[in-house]
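stage 2 :: seqdesign
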């Protein structure tokens, strides 16, 4: 018998491949082990929606609410069903978010813009890089959204200046939180032996959690509050100390 964690991972992987019947099967098996697992019930409901089995989807979400009356995910989908809202596949079920070790990375933005700018964002929107002295600014339609962490900014700035090119798009939006999907689109001869993003042993786990967030939470209305633009970003630990910024560093 598979573990609940294995079944969860199997369900998310199947969703990314568009195999919604397998998503149903994996979550049903998980629910046999954990009948009150609301995440599994919500995943089951999403799968039934994709299969256009609306009554079964409604039953799964109502069951999730029966175990947790405050479940926003179930409430969101039941409201969408009631309002006959057009169905869309999760954002990761597009070519845009395919993972390539060393060439892609989902990154949390720092120094976020205020409420009006963030409220206008949607998953999949294309972003632009603006190189600053200490970080890379991210803009959408010429409006500032946030900045990449300084270590990622420093690394990509050097690669951009030596011929690499990148694609950036909005991966997810939540209160005081924006993730962008970065993808290397061209690697110059000068950088042929350099990964844009160091390959992490925990990257698969992090990606699974991001994928479940997109699968279950996408398009939930959120109240977005202002973020202090002067808060210093928190550095990653995936590059060497000598590659990290200091306040004297200028690009």
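stage 2 :: out
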């Amino acid at each position: 018998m598979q573990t609940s964690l294995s079944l969860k991972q199997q369900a998310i992987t199947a969703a990314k491949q568009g195999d919604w019947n397998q998503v149903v099967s994996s979550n049903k098996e998980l629910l046999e082990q954990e009948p009150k697992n609301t995440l599994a019930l919500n995943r089951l409901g999403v799968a039934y929606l994709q299969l256009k089995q609306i009554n079964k989807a409604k039953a799964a979400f109502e069951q999730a609410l029966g175990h947790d009356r405050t479940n926003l995910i179930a409430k969101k989908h039941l409201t969408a069903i009631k309002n006959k809202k057009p169905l869309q596949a999760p954002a990761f079920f597009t070519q845009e978010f395919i993972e390539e070790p060393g060439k892609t990375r989902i990154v949390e933005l720092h120094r976020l813009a205020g409420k009006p700018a963030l409220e206008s964002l949607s998953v999949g929107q294309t972003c632009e890089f603006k190189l600053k002295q200490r970080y890379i600014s991210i803009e959408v339609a010429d409006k500032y959204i946030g900045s990449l962490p300084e270590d990622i900014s420093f690394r990509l700035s050097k690669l951009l200046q030596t011929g690499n090119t990148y694609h950036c798009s909005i991966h997810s939006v939540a209160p005081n939180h924006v993730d962008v999907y970065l993808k290397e689109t061209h690697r110059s001869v000068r950088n042929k032996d350099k990964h844009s993003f160091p390959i992490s042993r925990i990257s698969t786990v992090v990606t699974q959690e991001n994928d479940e967030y997109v699968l279950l939470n996408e398009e939930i209305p959120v109240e977005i509050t202002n973020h202090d633009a002067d808060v210093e970003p928190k550095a990653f630990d995936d590059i060497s100390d000598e590659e990290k910024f200091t306040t004297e560093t200028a690009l």
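stage 3 :: structure notes
- The two ends are 55 Å apart (CA to CA).
- The chain has two domains: 4-82, 95-235.
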